[in-house]
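User: Could you walk me through two proteins back to back? I'd like the raw sequence and the structure tokens for each, with a short line separating them so I can tell where one ends and the next begins.

Assistant: Of course. Protein one, sequence then structure:
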Amino acid sequence: MNFLVRSAQIKDSSSSLHNLTKDILIENGVIRAIEDHIPFEGKIIESDGLKASAGWFDLRAHYCDPGEEHREDLISGTKVAAAGGFTDVALLPNTQPVISAKNNLSYYQKWNRDSAVQLHPMAALTLNCEGKELTEMIDLNASGAVAFTDGIKPIWHTDVMLKGLQYVQKFNGLLINRAEDQWLTAFGHMNEGKTSTLLGLSGMPKLAETIMIERDLKLLEYTGGRLHFTLVSTQESIELIKSAQQKGLNVTCDVGVNYLKYNEEAVGDYDSRLKVNPPYRTEQDRLALINAVKDGTVNAIVSDHMPFDEERKKLEFDLAAFGTPNQQTFYAVLLDAFGDQVDELLPLFTSSPRKLLGLSPARIAVGEEACLTLFTNESWTFDAASNRSKSVASPLFGKTLPGRVLGVVNKGQVVLN
């Protein structure tokens, strides 16, 4: 398909075209020309205030396929991704069966042949994500696993974490952990503090996160390797990671986009759509995360797309499942949190995730394969008509939001909202 993107402001801080408004001609999936004005009689994509960046990359999402397709499947999931501006998505391994063998990886690789949204499966670090025995990491890496993690489960076994850090060094792989001591959070439903006490809900202490980060940083210092903490949620965690980075340890981290918007007080009316793990913390923690994004301590912003059906969310707060669908509202939340500064954050969900996973960068340049996200700052309404997910358990459902994604261009295809 040949088409023209008309008068788009290019957002690519690594390019001399950054902030320039240009026409972009795409022929057979390749950028053929970038000029001030290109005469063209075919399909033209244009919109007031249109911006074009390298395709967005989500480093953490769960499509529940195979195994729980009633929550989300690859068809609905990739529609959500495209509507949210993502050309690439790294998927968690917590499926049924768990992504722990070559044939599990091939399921997604076959899907990628005909999809504008490319899926990058992360393999389980341990068999069945139980934390007891390592998977065949070297074979899985050779077969296309982009990273190793137990996904929604923390790597609780200290010796397994140590050996995992040793094994990834054989192929310069990335080990990802969501830091949580589950013995300290076993009966919790939200952040432990004044708000949880007032609501009469069992709390999840910050200590559960920081104590595991301290453990893992000690192990990293001892073994070497590459370690990434996902969904960091506290000021203390940020300080520990920043100190480790300054010491030269090869450690990175990400934050979930909604943690930049919400704090613990948001659940004050027992809204189960705001029940997540880790829980939203204090306002001081939220501001610390925002500062860490700005100062470079945070290496990626993720959606943490975790969809659930109404039967699992429309319940009393203490019975509801942890997680919300966040991918389609990703840019709107960032605009709400950062305003005009949001364009400066683009590397955190374009180039940085690709670099962390050792993937080739997406560039806006003549001769490069077209991998673009097209977006504006216009408002839109997130409702039943616009929602692409099987889940409606978003706290933003039914609201008018800033930041409309026009569509994505990738693998010779264009998907428009």
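----
Protein two, same layout:
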Amino acid sequence: MTVLASRNESHHPAIGRGVGTRGAEGGRLLDTMVSRAQWPRLIGNLSPGDPLAATFVAPDDYRTYQVKGVVEMIAPATDEDRAVALAYHRQIHRLLTSLGVTEGQIRFWLTDSDLYRLRYRPTDVFVQTPGPRAGSRLEPRP
């Protein structure tokens, strides 16, 4: 699962759920799809150069990583982007329902309505999984 966070000029936060992420430009950048119809404040806060936080959680074991980054581009989704989102919908729906989450609890955020692609350059990655390493910066491999 993916939760995104932005802020406006007054530093008031806005959050939203991503519906699919992929690497871009050889993994140097990330693309996360998000519904502007569902999360207008999140998208409205963002322009190239703005900070963005993306938190990725594996719902079956709560392994969690937060990626801090800088927005490179915001654009309406292409057909390829929509395919990434729809594949994510199928995968996360299957996983969550296998864990006992009901259809009604997840249906509202699995949408491709007014879908946008957020492209961002990661600057830091933090382990957020509960335990002794929570909050620690993940160092890049040499």
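The chain has a mean pLDDT of 93.

Let me know if you want the two compared in more detail.
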